[in-house]
Structure formats: structure tokens, C-alpha cells
């Protein structure tokens, strides 16, 4: 639009703000039946009339403008008419359209566009208001930017990266806008089904239960939750979230994100030349899926990952074919590990599957070339399609790009993918063995063609599964470090001794599978003179071997050997003495003529990297660290980082699992968790237990540090232990048992421990002695020594089984195996 003198008039408007009425509308903040009668409530009406005001501006004559007093009267008359519709009430969307039509009739033909906003402050429970804004052009039935909205929804949540921001909930202000690209008739249908109250409740529950580090991630997640709730692909959702407490010299920072699920796929890049324009410094996040079902499946996957982390020999092999000769890549995170039934060709062994994330400056085609070369290096042989393979490395996504290198006329089939690159992977949405590991890493990544998130795709796929289909189960492999060649290369990967299938472990979007034995038993072998329970009993090699043999006979799954008591007041033991206590026992077990004893899994209970390394190289298979790599100092000191790096190096080199336990230095100290009372109620109104929140934050921080970034541990290497009896009160210990599953709950957004295998060690602990020593009536119950707390331990074991704990650390193996069997029979 332009005036006669050539000046642009596209910004000319007459606006009327905040006309107030009381009207019987069908919208309500409560789920009540309003089909027979509207709900009388306040309504604020605002109008925007777009027209050329250049003539009025120069002549100072109202005839070429709009009389806003008259327009106000027109709106008032329409609203007065609406008051008479008590039989049904009116919908805000229908009322807005009536107002637009009446305003066009009351104005002259030079009016270009009229917008009407209806704001309903009482039709929503928590937010300041909800409503509708519609826009119409003259002589056009087509909707113009019709938007439903929810204004100023005040919520609180844990949000931020700073330590103090992880301790208390902060206020947020959320504004939501919903635009639909359907025509006017369809929008009338949607207006009757649009449920601002339902969206408000969904977002309120989600945000207040979340614990994101960045406002950007939270905003993106809120948009995704709204899109999933709305369902229809033609919605465009905008979320604007303010964080008022973030800046002291500003009212608030705000993040605004708009997302839709377009039903029309974007045009894919058609050939390799399209990917060569990338800057050599541009880093892209790439998702790869790995699988193996031939040979040592676990070793093959680990070897493939090590070639990704140290690709020099691979790059030499494929360098002449690379687009970017100076590119680099690094593995920054891995998923959990799963055992899955074969798909497509079912008559073959089960697969081990996982996913990993890379950061790279290579092109997508370069990543494909590197992946194929790694497959060959690990030992993949040509076989039937979807048949057995030593390892499979598939490119699943390359940032948010859509790439298809096949000729344009040959993209309708999936039978011509050999040697071609199609990303996102064309079979992604039908493969649980890809979606589930991917969900561990980036559940809210949205498919660039469909807009569906990984979480949504997985939920839809699981919903279609039949009850007869075998479940995907998490697994933990145990390496045999005695098979290391010690050749100094990163490709020296030990063979696999055995592996565990975790039937209890929390899995997203899946019911728990508890068929057969689900809870694993760790027997405790203390080679110390002063352990609180069995100090001095297993100091001799003969006694230690007898305990191990008895434990195997009684059904133990792993034996935990320790040479340094961590009870309060225990004597300090030198590193050399600790090694001399544990290594001979490990070597004797591995040299035994008893085949069951020789092959039993062994964990080394130590916080010293020197002891861990000596024990693993002697034949142990797991590192059990009560300080989660950070040493006994609390708070941590500069020496902590060195100890952390060394323990991580050993776990990486030997490829063994690690048990990371929550503690705060001396076991009898630092029991104050009052700072965590500020977390408030969690999703579903559950009471938040401060000690649980502390464990999630403090142990979760250490776990994330170990499993994220260059040189990370594999996620499947980590087992978490809440540290019962370590810097915990009696009430804290009981709360941990009562709510143990909450620690690894996969449905808690932002939970850093979500999905990790959980170990509980309550056996014979002093808090059990305190419970059973309480007075009963007028009689005092005598305090019992640790060795007489097995019945109390059995009660704790039963509770842990009910809480779906994966591993129980016990002293009396035979008795606790019986307790587990009965408990599993009950809870199954």
C-alpha cells in the first residue's frame, strides 16, 4: 500500500484497546458442562483496522478515516446480542468473526484488513488470560494469521547451569501462541475442540517437573509437548519464556521459538556436491547407530567406537575419497546398550545395539565413507541383506539436514540404498533398535521432514507392538582385561567374559520386563581386619576362597573384593597394603581349578586408581568406587581432578563397568540436605525428598562428567549407587529404600540418572540396627551386632526388589538370594 506522494503506508492503523464486556461464553477454566448454558465471564476486545491514513493526515478531515467511536458502538451491539444466547452460549472464535464482519460493514471500502482480539481472563486457571486473535482482509473469506493464545502463565522450575540455580526453583513467565494453516471452516471446527485449559495443565505439569540447564532447551521441549498434544500437522506453535531472576539489571531475558510439523517434506540435497560447501570449521552433530551379532559382539562395537575416536588409520585408507581432507570428528556421548531380536531376517543370532553422537567437520558423505571403512576394519563380510554382521555402522542423522544422493527418479524404493546416503535414515521410524538408543541421547530431536520427535516416534512404534514381540533389554558387558595385548594402541580392546541382561532397569515407553531372575546379587568379600560387618574373617587366602566358593554355590552373580574399610573411624591403609590384600585373592580365583570360581565376575571395591588398575589387570571386571572417582575429600580439592582422570583412564583402557556411588567424604559426616527442600512438589504432586534430589544432582553431575564429551565413558559402563549409610541419616536411608526407583526414573524430565542400572547396598548397615533397637512398649530391645542384622537386611532387600533395583550388595548371599526369590515371586 502506498500514498499518492509515494510514501509507504503499510504501517497505518486505527486501534482500539480493551473494550470490556461480560458475556456468556462456552470457554471455561474448569471441565464443566457448558453445552446447555454459557458461562458469564469478562471479555476484553481489542481491534486493529489497517487502512491508508495519508489523506486524513494531510487534510485533517475524518471522512477518509474510520470513526473509532462508531466502531466501538458496533462491537458493543454485537456483544449485547450475544448476551441473549443463554441457551448455548457462544464460542470466542465465532464471536470474533461476527465482530469482524460487522466492522467491515460499518466501515468504507478503503479498509484493507481488520483484526480482532478477544482476551478471556477467567477462561483459564493459572495464566493471566487466554483467547483468540483473528485477521480478515476486505472481501476475503480466507483466514489471515488466526492465533489462539495463552498469556503470562507463571510457573516455577529448576532451570540454569550455575550450581545455585540447581538448588531452588525459579519463576518463569510463559506465553504460548497457536496458529493453524487450515481454512476458515476447519478453524471453526478446531475452535470448538481447542482446549487451552488442557494445554495449560499439560505445560504446568511438564515444566514444574523438569530440570533443564538452558532456557532454550526448555522452550523447545514446551513447543514439542504442545505439538504432540495438538496432533494435527498444520499447527505452528510459538513459545516465549521469560526468566525474570536471571539478570539483575534487566527485567528478564526471553527465548522465543516457533516450530511446526509440516506435512510436506523439505527438498533433499540431491548429490554429494551439495554437502561440499560446508566450512571446514563448521561442526555438525551426527547420530550413528551401531549393531553386531557375529563374533564377540560387545568387543566389535567397542572397537568400532575406538576407530571413530582415533580414526587415523581409517583416514589414511579413505583420504583420497574425502570431500574435506582436513576434517575431524569426536565421539561425545553414547547410549545404553541393548540386546534385540533380529528384524527382517529372523533366523540369526540376537543383536547388540547402541547409538552414539559425533561432532564433526566432515561432510555427511565423508562420515558414510569412514563408517563403511570401519565396518570392514572390524571384520564385516558381505552377506545377505539384513543378515548377520560383525558390526553395522549407520548414519541416522546429520544435524537437521535432509540428504538423498540417489537420482531423483529413483527415490521411491528402499531397495537401492547400497552405496548411497539417505538421511535421516529412511527406516528410522520402523526400528525400535535405533529409536530406543537414540532416545537415550536426544529424545527431542525432531525429524526435519515429519517434525516428529524421537520420543513421539518411539511411543508410536511401541504402541503398535504386539504382546508376543520380544522386548529390548539393557545389557552390561564385562571385559576380561587378562586378554589385553598391552600394545599401547587404542585398538587394544579386551575380549568379553560375560554380560548381564537387566530385566528391572528403567526403559522409556516400555513396561518393565521381570521374567525369570531380575535382581542380581553382589557378594561382599572384605579382606580387611576392621570392616564393620565381617572384619578379619577373610584375611587368609583359604578363607577368602571358601567365601567365594560358598557364594557361587548359593547363587551370587558377582563378588566384590575390598581391602580398605570405609566405615567411620577406620584405620588408614597405604596403597601398597591395599593392593597386597586384594590382588592375591583375585589371582587365586582366576587360577582356580573350579571352573565356576575361575569365571566368576569380580569387582574391586576401591577409590584409589592404583589399586583399581592392579586389580583389573589381575583379573577383576568392575571398579566399585564409593566416591565416584572424586576421592574421599569433601568438598573436592585440586587433587580430585587428577584422581578422577586416572580412574576414568583405567576404565576406558580396560573397558570395564564402574559403580559410581554418592557420598560426601567421611561416611559419618555431611548429612545436611536441607538446601534441597526448596525443590517443591514434583510431577503428579509427589512429595520431593531432599536426599533424593541431592543424589540426583551431586551424583548425576559426576556421571554426566564421566559420560559426556571427548574421551567419555560409554553410558553402558556406569552403574549408580545412592550410597546408603554414607553421609545419610537414618531417615535418609529409609527414604532412599522407599523411593529408590525414583532415582533412575526415566519419565522425569532432566533427571541426570534416568535409566542407569541401580545398585543398593543396605546389608547389615547401622541404620538397620538403630531401627530394630528401638524400644517396644516399656521393654528395651538390645542393640545387635552387624552379623545379627540379616533379618532386617531381608526386609530392606524385599523393599529394593519392589523398587526394581537391579543389583543388591549383600553379606549373607544364601539368605538374601532366598529373600530375593520370594520377593520377586510376590512382585511379579
TrEMBL record:
Catalytic activity line of the entry: (7,8-dihydropterin-6-yl)methyl diphosphate + 4-aminobenzoate = 7,8-dihydropteroate + diphosphate; 6-hydroxymethyl-7,8-dihydropterin + ATP = (7,8-dihydropterin-6-yl)methyl diphosphate + AMP + H(+)
One example of a Gene Ontology biological process annotation: folic acid biosynthetic process
Cofactor (UniProt): Mg(2+)
Highest taxon of source: Eukaryota
UniProt GO molecular function: 2-amino-4-hydroxy-6-hydroxymethyldihydropteridine diphosphokinase activity; ATP binding; dihydroneopterin aldolase activity; dihydropteroate synthase activity; kinase activity; metal ion binding
Keywords from the named record: ATP-binding, Folate biosynthesis, Kinase, Magnesium, Metal-binding, Multifunctional enzyme, Nucleotide-binding, Transferase
Name by which UniProt lists this protein: Dihydropteroate synthase
Amino acid at each position: 500500500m502506498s500514498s499518492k506522494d509515494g510514501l509507504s503506508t503499510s504501517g497505518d492503523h486505527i486501534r482500539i484497546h480493551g473494550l470490556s464486556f461480560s458475556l456468556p461464553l462456552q470457554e471455561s477454566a474448569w471441565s464443566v458442562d457448558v453445552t446447555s448454558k454459557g458461562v458469564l465471564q469478562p471479555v476484553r476486545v481489542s481491534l486493529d483496522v489497517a487502512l491508508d491514513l495519508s489523506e486524513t493526515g494531510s487534510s485533517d478531515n475524518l471522512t477518509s478515516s474510520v470513526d473509532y467511536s462508531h466502531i466501538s458502538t458496533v462491537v458493543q451491539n454485537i456483544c449485547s446480542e450475544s448476551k441473549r444466547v443463554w441457551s448455548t452460549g457462544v464460542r470466542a472464535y465465532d464471536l470474533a468473526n461476527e465482530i469482524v464482519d460487522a466492522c467491515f460493514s460499518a466501515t468504507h471500502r478503503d479498509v484493507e484488513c481488520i483484526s480482532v482480539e478477544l482476551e478471556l481472563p477467567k477462561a483459564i486457571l493459572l495464566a493471566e488470560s487466554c483467547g483468540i486473535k483473528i485477521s480478515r482482509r476486505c472481501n476475503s473469506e480466507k483466514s489471515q494469521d488466526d492465533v489462539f493464545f495463552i498469556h503470562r502463565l507463571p510457573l516455577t522450575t529448576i532451570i540454569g547451569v550455575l550450581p545455585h540455580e540447581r538448588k531452588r526453583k525459579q519463576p518463569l513467565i510463559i506465553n504460548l501462541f497457536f496458529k493453524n494453516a487450515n481454512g476458515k471452516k476447519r478453524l471453526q471446527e478446531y475452535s470448538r475442540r481447542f482446549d487451552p485449559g488442557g494445554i495449560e495443565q499439560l505445560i504446568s505439569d511438564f515444566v514444574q517437573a523438569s530440570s533443564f540447564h538452558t532456557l532454550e532447551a526448555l522452550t523447545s521441549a514446551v513447543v514439542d509437548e504442545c505439538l504432540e498434544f495438538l496432533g494435527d500437522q498444520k499447527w505452528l506453535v510459538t513459545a516465549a519464556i521469560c526468566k525474570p531472576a536471571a539478570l539483575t539489571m534487566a527485567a528478564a531475558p526471553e527465548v522465543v521459538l516457533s516450530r511446526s510439523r509440516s506435512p510436506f517434506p523439505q527438498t533433499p540435497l540431491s548429490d554429494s556436491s551439495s554437502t561440499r560447501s560446508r566450512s571446514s570449521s563448521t561442526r555438525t552433530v551426527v547420530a550413528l547407530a551401531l549393531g553386531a551379532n557375529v563374533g564377540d559382539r560387545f568387543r566389535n562395537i567397542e572397537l568400532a567406537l575406538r576407530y571413530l575416536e582415533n580414526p587415523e588409520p581409517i583416514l589414511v585408507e579413505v583420504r583420497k575419497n574425502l570431500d574435506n581432507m582436513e576434517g575431524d570428528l569426536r565421539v561425545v556421548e553414547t547410549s545404553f546398550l541393548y540386546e534385540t531380536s533380529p528384524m527382517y531376517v529372523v533366523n540369526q543370532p540376537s543383536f547388540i545395539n547402541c547409538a552414539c553422537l559425533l561432532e564433526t567437520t566432515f561432510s555427511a558423505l565423508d562420515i558414510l565413507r569412514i563408517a563403511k571403512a570401519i565396518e570392514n576394519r572390524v571384520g564385516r563380510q558381505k552377506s545377505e541383506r539384513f543378515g548377520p554382521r560383525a558390526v553395522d555402522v549407520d548414519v541416522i542423522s546429520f544435524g537437521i539436514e535432509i540428504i538423498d544422493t540417489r537420482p531423483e527418479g529413483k527415490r521411491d524404493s528402499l531397495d537401492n540404498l547400497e552405496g548411497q546416503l539417505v538421511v535421516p535414515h529412511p527406516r528410522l521410524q520402523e526400528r525400535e533398535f535405533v529409536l530406543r538408543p537414540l532416545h537415550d541421547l536426544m529424545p527431542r530431536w525432531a525429524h526435519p521432514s515429519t517434525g516428529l520427535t524421537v520420543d513421539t516416534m518411539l511411543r508410536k512404534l511401541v504402541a503398535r507392538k504386539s504382546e508376543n514381540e520380544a522386548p529390548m533389554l539393557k545389557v552390561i558387558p564385562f571385559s576380561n582385561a587378562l586378554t589385553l595385548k598391552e600394545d599401547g594402541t587404542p585398538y587394544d580392546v579386551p575380549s568379553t567374559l560375560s554380560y548381564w541382561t537387566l530385566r528391572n532397569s528403567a526403559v522409556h515407553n516400555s513396561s518393565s520386563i521381570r521374567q525369570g531372575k531380575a535382581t542380581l546379587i553382589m557378594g561382599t568379600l572384605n579382606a580387611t581386619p576392621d570392616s564393620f560387618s565381617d572384619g578379619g574373617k577373610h584375611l587368609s587366602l583359604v578363607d577368602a576362597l571358601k567365601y567365594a566358593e560358598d557364594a557361587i554355590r548359593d547363587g551370587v552373580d558377582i563378588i566384590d573384593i575390598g581391602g580398605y574399610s570405609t566405615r567411620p573411624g577406620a584405620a588408614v591403609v597405604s596403597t601398597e597394603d591395599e593392593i597386597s590384600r586384594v590382588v592375591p585373592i583375585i589371582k587365586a580365583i582366576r587360577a582356580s581349578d573350579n571352573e565356576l570360581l575361575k569365571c566368576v565376575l569380580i569387582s574391586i571395591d576401591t577409590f584409589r586408581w592404583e589399586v583399581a588398575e592392579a586389580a583389573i589387570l589381575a583379573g577383576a571386571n568392575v571398579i566399585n568406587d564409593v566416591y565416584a572417582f572424586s576421592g574421599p575429600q569433601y568438598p573436592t580439592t585440586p587433587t580430585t581432578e587428577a584422581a578422577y582422570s586416572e580412574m576414568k583412564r583405567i576404565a576406558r583402557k580396560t573397558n570395564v563397568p564402574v559403580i559410581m556411588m554418592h557420598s560426601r567424604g567421611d561416611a559419618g559426616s555431611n548429612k545436611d540436605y536441607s538446601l534441597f527442600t526448596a525443590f517443591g512438589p514434583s510431577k503428579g504432586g509427589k512429595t520431593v525428598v531432599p536426599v533424593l534430589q541431592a543424589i540426583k544432582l551431586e551424583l548425576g553431575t559426576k556421571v554426566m562428567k564421566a559420560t559426556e564429551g571427548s574421551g567419555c565413558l560409554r553410558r553402558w559402563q556406569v552403574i549408580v549407587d545412592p550410597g546408603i549409610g554414607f553421609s545419610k541419616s537414618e531417615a535418609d536411608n529409609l527414604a532412599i529404600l522407599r523411593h529408590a526407583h525414583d532415582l533412575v526414573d526415566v519419565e522425569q524430565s532432566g533427571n541426570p540418572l534416568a535409566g542407569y542400572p541401580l545398585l543398593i547396598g543396605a546389608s547389615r548397615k547401622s541404620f538397620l540396627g538403630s531401627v530394630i533397637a528401638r524400644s517396644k512398649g516399656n521393654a528395651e530391645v538390645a542393640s545387635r551386632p552387624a552379623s545379627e542384622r540379616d533379618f532386617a537386611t531381608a526386609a530392606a532387600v524385599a523393599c529394593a526388589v519392589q523398587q526394581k533395583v537391579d543389583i543388591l550388595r549383600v553379606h549373607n548371599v544364601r539368605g538374601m538370594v532366598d529373600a530375593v526369590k520370594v520377593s520377586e515371586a510376590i512382585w511379579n
